[in-house]
C-alpha cells in the first residue's frame, strides 16, 4: 500500500523473447543499411585515389574543380547536342557521377550546331564562352585566336566563340598511323557497326549522318586532317622514313581545340591519334 511519501512506480512488463528478436533484427537491418550508404558515398573517392584519367568535358567547360562545383547535372547540354556526343558520368565517375563528358572515340563533337548549343543551354555557367575575371585561363589552355569552323568558312562570321581549348590531339601511336606507314585507306572509317555521326558539308550542312554511310577512298590516309572541323588545327608533315622513302605524318597545330573528330574517324584500332582531355598547348608540345 502506497503512502503520501511513496509515489506509485509502475514496473514495466518483461520483454518477451520474440520481441527481443524483432528488435535485434531491426537493429541489424538498420546498421546494414547505414553501412551500405556509407560505402556508396565512399565510392566518390575511388576515382580520386585511383588517379583516373581526366574526362573530356564539353566545349566551354570551366577548369575541372570549378566545373564540378558549378554543374548541376541537369542534362540540358546532352539534350541539345545534334550528334549526341555528350554523355553523363556513371557511378564509376565518383564525384563526376551525372556530370557531362565526351568519349571522342565513340562520338566526337563535330560542331554540327555551329553556335555550340551546349554552352547556350547551360543554365549555370559551367559551360561558358567567357569566364568571370576571377577565373583566369590556365597557361596553354587559351586559344591564340578564335577557331575558324570549316563549315562556316564562307559565312560572314566563320569563327567559333571559343576562348579556350578543352583538350589537345596527340599522335599517340605513330607506328599504327596509316599515313606514317605510307598507306591509303578505302571503305568505312570505323566499319559497318560504328554508330558515330558527323556532318558532311557535301551531303547536308545541318543534318549529321552516320560515318558508316560515308565511305572513303584515299591514296594516302589523311582522314584526321580532312575531317577535322577546325581550320589549321592539324596538317600532314613530310618526313623521311628509315628506308629512305618520303612519308607523311599528322602534326597537331596550335589551333587544335580538342574536339575529338580525328580520334573518332581514325581507321586504326586502337586509334593512332587521341585526345588528351583538359590538356594545354605547352604540355602537348613537350
General description of the model:
By secondary structure, this protein is an alpha+beta fold. Helices cover 21% and strands 14% of the residues. It has one domain. The strands form five sheets. Strands 1-2 form a two-stranded antiparallel sheet. A two-stranded antiparallel sheet has the order 3-10.
Largest sheet: 2 strands, antiparallel
**How much helical structure, as a percent, in the residues?**
10-25%
Mean pLDDT: 88
- Specify the structural class: alpha+beta
Low-confidence runs of at least 5 consecutive residues: 46-51
The H-and-E topology, N to C, reads as HHHHEEHEEEEEHEEHEH
Protein name: 4Fe-4S dicluster domain-containing protein
Domain 4Fe-4S ferredoxin-type: 60-91, 98-132, 248-278
Keywords: 4Fe-4S, Iron, Iron-sulfur, Membrane, Metal-binding, Transmembrane, Transmembrane helix
Transmembrane segments: 27-48
List the helices and strands and how they pair.
Elements: H1 17-42, H2 46-49, H3 64-70, H4 76-80, E1 86-88, E2 100-102, H5 117-121, E3 167-171, E4 185-187, E5 197-198, E6 209-210, E7 216-218, H6 223-226, E8 234-240, E9 246-252, H7 261-265, E10 273-277, H8 281-285
Amino acid at each position: 500500500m502506497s503512502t503520501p511519501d511513496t509515489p506509485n512506480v509502475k514496473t514495466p512488463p518483461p520483454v518477451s523473447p520474440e520481441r527481443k528478436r524483432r528488435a535485434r533484427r531491426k537493429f541489424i537491418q538498420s546498421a546494414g543499411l547505414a553501412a551500405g550508404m556509407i560505402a556508396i558515398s565512399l565510392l566518390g573517392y575511388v576515382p580520386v585515389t585511383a588517379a583516373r584519367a581526366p574526362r573530356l568535358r564539353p566545349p566551354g567547360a570551366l577548369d575541372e574543380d570549378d566545373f564540378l562545383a558549378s554543374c548541376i547535372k541537369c542534362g540540358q547540354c546532352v539534350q541539345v547536342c545534334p550528334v549526341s556526343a555528350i554523355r553523363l558520368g556513371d557511378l564509376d565517375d565518383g564525384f563526376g557521377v551525372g556530370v557531362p563528358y565526351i568519349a571522342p572515340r565513340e562520338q566526337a563533337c563535330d560542331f554540327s550546331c555551329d553556335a555550340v548549343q551546349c554552352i547556350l543551354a547551360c543554365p549555370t555557367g559551367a559551360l561558358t564562352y567567357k569566364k568571370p575575371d576571377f577565373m583566369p585561363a590556365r597557361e596553354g589552355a587559351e586559344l591564340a585566336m578564335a577557331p575558324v569552323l570549316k563549315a562556316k568558312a564562307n559565312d560572314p562570321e566563320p569563327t567559333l566563340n571559343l576562348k579556350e581549348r578543352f583538350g589537345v590531339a596527340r599522335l599517340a601511336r605513330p607506328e599504327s598511323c596509316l599515313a606514317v606507314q605510307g598507306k591509303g585507306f578505302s571503305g568505312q572509317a570505323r566499319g559497318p557497326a560504328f554508330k558515330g555521326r558527323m556532318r558532311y558539308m557535301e551531303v547536308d550542312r545541318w543534318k549529321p549522318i552516320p560515318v558508316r554511310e560515308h565511305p572513303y577512298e584515299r591514296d594516302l590516309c589523311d582522314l584526321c586532317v580532312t575531317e577535322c572541323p577546325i581550320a589549321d588545327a592539324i596538317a600532314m608533315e613530310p618526313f623521311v622514313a628509315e628506308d629512305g622513302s618520303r612519308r607523311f605524318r599528322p602534326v597537331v597545330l596550335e589551333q587544335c581545340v580538342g574536339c575529338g573528330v580525328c580520334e573518332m574517324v581514325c581507321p586504326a584500332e586502337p586509334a593512332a591519334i587521341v585526345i588528351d582531355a583538359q590538356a594545354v598547348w605547352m604540355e602537348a608540345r613537350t
